[in-house]
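Structure ticket #2291
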Amino acid sequence: MLDHNALVVVADGHQARLFRNTAKQGLELSEIEQLTPKNLADEGSGAAPQERSPKDEDEATFAKQLSERLNRIALRHKAEQVVVIADPSTLGTMRKHYHKELEAMLVKELAKDLTHASAQDVEKALS
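Resolution: structure written out below.
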């Protein structure tokens, strides 16, 4: 079971939703932030292989930027537990950029696309 105030990140290559577990016991997610490539644009990007399409490149860049944001959360101790739920491609890209501090906080990863799911559906996926 997730601790109170655990951070749950639900992402795909186009957007991410951040939730906190607000329940003292059990699981009750409250959305705290929505992230898009536009509001993560200052996070930086890296070079990618030439064989990627522009769409693939954009998705990989967003996943890297999101990982960098999560790394900063971990390094600033803004979360004790982190869960990442993302489509398989995004999750694979994100994993390459996890800081060891973030890895230590990860309690679960789920390879699913739930970015358009309700908080209740995300809760069900985690139980």
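Closing remark: The CA atoms of residues 11 and 32 lie 14 Å apart.
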